[in-house]
Amino acid sequence: MSITPSQCRAARSLINLDQNDLAKAASVSRGVIIDFEKERRTPGKNNLAAIRAALESAGVIFLADGETTTGGPGVRLESS
To answer: pTM for the full model?
Structure first.
């Protein structure tokens, strides 16, 4: 499953991570994060997978269409 720009923004907010820190954690440039979140471009498959993996390793769970009360994609934190 891919992630959307809004899921990326929401996930960062949930874990209090800024764009620079996400870029470092995912080993991508900050510009990749900025452009993705502003919907200017979609990162390549490997970069997108690295962004998702970095967020998931920090405890974010990505929800697909239909797994949220709104029916669209979403995010939540792992329960501890």
So the answer is: 0.90
Amino acid (1-letter code) at residue 8 = C
Nearest to 22 by CA among 4, 6, 34: 34
* CATH at residue 26: 1.10.260.40
Report the alpha-carbon distance of residue 32 to residue 40 in Å, rounded: 10
CA atoms within 13 A on the CB side of 69: 1
Q: Which domain holds residue 60?
A: 5-77
Question: Model confidence over 31-74: pLDDT tens digits?
Answer: 999 999 999 999 999 999 999 999 999 999 999 876 666 677 89
Number of helices and strands (H, E) in the chain? 4, 2
Q: How many CB atoms lie within 10 A of CB 56?
A: 14
How many domains are contained in the chain?
A: 1
Task: Fill in the DSSP letter of residue 78.
Answer: P
